[in-house]
Each structure stands twice: as C-alpha cells, then as structure tokens.
Design goal:
alpha+beta; 3 helices; fatty acid metabolism; Biotin_BS; lipid metabolism; single chain; about 170 residues; lipid biosynthesis; 2 domains; four-stranded antiparallel beta sheet; Biotin_lipoyl; OB fold (Dihydrolipoamide Acetyltransferase, E2P)
C-alpha cells in the first residue's frame, strides 16, 4: 500500500510541474491531507529571469552616428545598468506579490510617481492588483525615483523589480 501512495504522489507532483509550465507560473504550493497525521506538502518552483531591456547593442557601423544623439539625451549611466540585474540594485523596490501594476489611482489620473520625483518613506509608488484587491506599494525609503522598470497594466511576479530609488 505505501508504494501505491508513493506512485500517486509522484504522479501528483508531475502534474503540478506540468501545470507550472503550462500556465507560465514561477511557483506553486499545495498541501494534500490524507488523514489526521498524514499529509503531503509540495512546493514546485522554477527560477524565472526578468528581462527589463531586450534591445541589442548597436552595430559597430552605425554606432558613431547614433551614439552622440543618445549621449546628449540620456546620461551614460543607464547603459551599464542594462547589463546588470535591476533586482540586485540596492535601491530596487521589489514586488511583494504577483499581480497587475497600475501607475495611477484610476484611469486618467496622474501617475503616483515619475522618473526624477523625490519620494518620502511610505509614499505610494504604484498599485499591484492581486485577486481584485488593490495593494498600494509604499516607498521603502526616501529618495529620488531613478528608473521605473514596469509599465502600467503589466503583469508582475513576486520578487520582480518595480523601480529604482536612490
């Protein structure tokens, strides 16, 4: 009998792994109760890379023509940041949940913050909607918003970087 339970547990775990892949989830946790002192806790997860910029470096030929225009409009600092993981930045604000990002309180209203804005600790940066609940994401520290890494209406995963505050 224990072998039968083991086989069904393995089949159950395989089904959870397929569900994880088929629905593009990063984590799934389930508790299966068999009796008073008999249960199975399963957590299936996978690492998901967050890509914030998919643009390739310009080809060597056009670079001398395009580079001066880019340098004049944007500072040189964003180029190195494109190669590093924004989640590892010390000023990164990380999503505390899976959901949909909203940059303003309601459609047509001004955004909570923009790049260059100064924020105080506790100020609302954006909203993450999860299961029809609007969760205001506060600034974890005072500083200046340097980068916004998500777009309004975009889906975010738990632990995904939302913005950089320095």
């Amino acid at each position: 009998m224990p072998n039968k339970t083991h086989e069904t547990d393995v089949a159950f775990i395989k089904a959870l792994a397929e569900l994880l892949n088929d629905n593009d989830l990063t984590e799934l946790q389930v508790k299966r109760d068999y009796g008073e002192n008999d249960s199975l806790n399963v957590r299936v997860s996978r690492r998901k890379e967050v890509i914030t910029q998919v643009q390739a470096a310009p080809a060597p030929g056009p670079a001398p023509v395009a580079a001066p225009a880019q340098t004049a409009e944007t500072p040189a600092a964003p180029a190195p940041e494109a190669n590093e993981d924004p989640a590892s930045h010390p000023g990164a604000v990380i999503s505390p949940m899976v959901g949909t990002v909203y940059m303003q309180a309601e459609p047509g209203a001004p955004s909570f913050v923009s790049v260059g804005d100064t924020v105080s600790e506790g100020d609302t940066l954006l909203i993450v909607e999860a299961m029809k609940t609007m969760n205001h994401i506060p600034a974890p520290r005072a500083g200046t918003v340097k980068r916004i890494l998500v777009e309004d209406g975009a889906a975010v995963e738990y632990g995904a970087p939302l913005m950089i505050i320095e």
